[in-house]
Amino acid sequence: MDHESDQATRAVLEPRHPVGSPEGELPPGGDDPIMPGDHFIIDLDGTLLRGGVATEGGQAFLRGVEGRFVLVSNNSRDVSPSLSAKLRRVGLDIPAERMVLAGEETIGFVASRFPGARCLIAASPTLRHHARRQGLAPVTERADVVVLGRDTSWSYAKLMLLANEVCRGAVLIAANPDLTHPGNDGLIVPETGSLLAAVEAASGVGATHVIGKPAATLFVAALERLGSARHDTIVIGDNPLTDRAGARALGLRSLIVDADRLGGQPNLADLCDRLAPINSA
User: What is the pLDDT of residues 206-215, one digit of tens each?
Assistant: First the structure.
């Protein structure tokens, strides 16, 4: 890969952190209705799952929209088959072919844009293995591309390595911009966006691409998987800054849920009650 020819596209950028950042603004408007014949793009963390436990009404809701949904998640550690198996163990039956995951899509994007590239992948072993299967060459130095996911083995030494690789000229690509996702008992779980913020701050270079929500990539992939049109597809999620903002940007309807019904928002059990008369109509 010719680093010099790509200098213009790797100019120092303002870090982009729309999720959970002080600059993030809630998209205007409220919740949209579920309509007869709708297809569903459904979020995972905070919506169907929280802290490794299925949320109230999660599996019942999936049954109610069976054959008409795709899971779209900023998950940047798993691939679809492994995540499907994990979810089955907590009572959520979602086939791998009904998943669009940020980490998996990021590896696919890099493989198509930079085939055979030397990649320094700060992510899970699962994603590194997936990268090899996609023809990429995971390395520990002199990378063409730095790929960033939710790396639970993060360290100061790794930050130093990534920052210097980016300063040397490697392209920086992140799986998602999320700063955190919700864990058990109100705990926050640091996400890819927090690690991205550190790399951008240390290197002074912004990511050229951030693949996950609220960007369009995952939503467009979900629409293709569903075979649905935008007017008959609704996004169900817990985060207005990713789920609603991404939906609005593509002209999709959205509905925000909260597992604990905070702020008067419904949870998935409540949506099951709304689905019943629609499905029987």
Answer: 999 999 999 9
- The SS3 assignment for 148 reads strand
Range of the domain at 131: 114-210
Strand order in the sheet with 145-148: 137-138, 118-122, 145-148, 171-174, 209-210
For the stretch 192-245, pLDDT in tens is 999 999 999 999 999 999 999 999 999 999 999 999 999 999 999 999 999 999
Q: How many CA atoms lie within 13 A of 240 on its CB side?
A: 12
In the predicted model, is pLDDT for residue 184 greater than 90?
no
**Cα(231)–Cα(251) distance, rounded to whole angstroms?**
8
The pTM of the full predicted model, rounded to 2 decimals, is 0.88
Contact 221, 108 (CB under 8 A): no
Q: Are residues 192 and 236 in the same domain?
A: no
Q: How far apart are CA 50 and CA 86, in angstroms?
A: 13
Question: At residue 25, does pLDDT exceed 80?
Answer: no
Question: From CA 189, how far away is CA 33, in angstroms rounded?
Answer: 31
3-class secondary-structure state, position 252: coil
Domain of 245, CATH number, reads: 3.40.50.1000
Does residue 122 share a domain with residue 143? yes
- Given 158, 177, 210, the domain boundary residue is 210
* CA 166/CA 200 separation, integer angstroms: 9
3-state secondary structure of 163: helix
241 shares a domain with 269: yes
Q: Is the dihedral of CA 184, 263, 232, 109 positive or negative?
A: negative
Is 7 part of any domain? no
